[in-house]
Design a protein that fits this description.
The protein is mainly α. Helix 5 packs across helix 10. A four-stranded parallel β-sheet has the order 2-1-3-4, with helices on both faces. It has 13 helices and four strands.
């Protein structure tokens, strides 16, 4: 009987976490989004540990958001994660867009489950994000998976963010923490929640997209992962080949606001400094705190 009560308690906690993850949305639909909160805390001078704990609370114990208003995809971020996608998401939010970025993909767990069961296409991933009110997609977790579909949508503009230090710089940045994140979130207790199971399927597919196995502990991904530089360049060239030149902006975050405002035909470009969402040290701190 004690074992039965313990099993039920564990099941309840895991399902509570899963429901919390399903509620998580990155956009301002729930007030201050995670990207905006990160930027605010950073501007307030909070420590890396304080920011990490605050984001952890909002990720796993969020307030339920109101029903989203469906929209159409307008902008697609085709850059790989750690190429400035977080900063781009925050910049586009400042310009009035609603991007699906990072933890926002938690809300896609159900359609990812259908996708990996063979019952939903990559187009369904785009449609589901539109239903959730996102008019900016791709950015990091789905940039590599959906850029070919975005290239076929004539009204969608594509931004290919690139790492300021090129392929080698990107490989070192990504490999310094991302494989560890994928490994940890694939372990107990996270692997008991369907949300994390589906997201880890997506992450493992990304590992194979980069040319390695689906095992994040594969030596191919070990820092500084020099072999990943070629994968980075292959991805960027594939995007440039797929997307018509008039709908593509190749963007380096160090260029600031001007190229984005011109590309998106923004009349009043922000005069503030271009956002910088997460540096490598911040992500390493998150790895230790979480």
């Amino acid at each position: 009987m004690v074992l039965g009560k313990l099993t039920k308690a564990v099941w309840w906690r895991l399902n509570f976490v899963d429901v919390a993850l399903q509620f998580l949305l990155l956009t301002g639909a729930m007030g201050e989004g995670l990207s905006e909160k990160f930027s605010r805390l950073q501007n307030e001078g909070r420590s890396h540990a304080e920011i990490s704990l605050a984001l952890f609370k909002d990720m796993f114990f969020p307030e339920p958001p109101p029903p989203p208003e469906p929209t159409k995809l307008k902008v697609f971020g085709a850059g790989l994660p750690r190429s400035g996608t977080g900063s781009l998401a925050l910049a586009l939010t400042t310009l009035g867009y609603k991007p699906c970025h990072g933890p926002g993909t938690f809300a896609l767990a159900s359609v990812l489950g259908e996708h990996y069961a063979g019952r939903a296409s990559k187009w369904d991933l785009i449609r589901r994000q539109e239903e959730l009110g996102y008019d900016v997609q791709g950015l990091d977790q789905l940039s590599w998976k959906n850029f070919e579909e975005a290239a076929q949508m004539p009204n969608v503009k594509v931004i290919l963010s690139q790492h300021p230090r090129g392929g080698a710089g990107w490989a070192a940045s990504w490999s310094s923490f991302a494989p560890d994140h994928i490994h940890y979130f694939g372990q107990r207790p996270f692997r008991f929640t369907d949300t994390m199971v589906q997201l880890m399927k997506l992450n493992r597919e990304f590992l194979t997209y980069l040319g390695g196995s689906d095992d994040p502990t594969d030596s191919y991904f070990a820092f500084p992962a020099p072999g990943l530089s070629d994968a980075y360049e292959r991805h960027n060239e594939a995007v440039k080949k797929a997307v018509p030149a008039e709908r593509l902006l190749v963007f380096d975050p160090t260029q600031g606001w001007e190229p984005i405002c011109r590309f998106l035909e923004v009349e009043q470009c922000p005069t503030t400094e271009y956002p910088r969402m997460t540096d490598r040290q911040m992500m390493l701190t998150m790895s230790k705190v979480w």
